[in-house]
Specification:
This protein is mostly helical and 259 residues long. Helices cover 88% and strands 0% of the residues. The longest helix has 37 residues, at 68-104. It is globular.
Amino acid sequence: AYPLYMLPYSLSSGLSERILQVSLINFYSLGTLGAFTLARQIVNAPAVLMSSSLRQVMFGHSAAQTDPEARRARTLAVLRLMIDVSAPATGFALIWLPSVLLYAMPSAWSEMTSYAWWCLFPTSMLFLCSWLDRMFDVLGKPRLGVTLQIVSDIAVVAVVLIGGRLGLEASRLISCVTMTQTAYYVIWLTILLRQLDVRWTSIMTIAARLAAELVVWTVVHSMVIRKFSIQAGFLVSVALLVATIATVSIRLLRHRSQS
């Protein structure tokens, strides 16, 4: 059944991506498409890299696990750890990414800075979802996962076409697209947790944890940039981020070793 459901999944994803690319060229320019594509690649790279190995571990563990309670407990435990990694990294990027890109990229690519900043929102949720992408298969509900993906692709295409026809500025259209994708990941994760029989109170607690940590870390990095010079502030923020992620990574490795 898996190949059967992967066909419409792949077709939908590929078609929506092509429509997005063609629309950005048609409504704006080839440069806009290039800037947006590069922004996504830069922002998504850490999330894809960090979640790729965990995906295989979680899929193997969940597929072999016959106790729904144990599967649910392990998933929630790892999800909380992933939030503890995602929140400080996203808070750091929200404050420092524009400055880093303006410094590192040619001035001709300045519009990419705005696109990259907006891409941080869906990427932060992608980081929390990508390692769970086979969980619907484990639960025997691949049709639900494919349906959610197709609905999301239709929503993105609709936003792009309507926004382009209305004459929105490129940065505004990109913000609408990325927030649509962010909403999709939030809904996807919520539905998956419900399929795992996670209570609504637990889901709300997880959401509150993510929001609280993101706000705290954004404020922390904002205070750093105000208190120190740009160079010193950047080094302090990097040190805080590395120390936090290293601590959480050790905890995550312990969970992996117990799988």
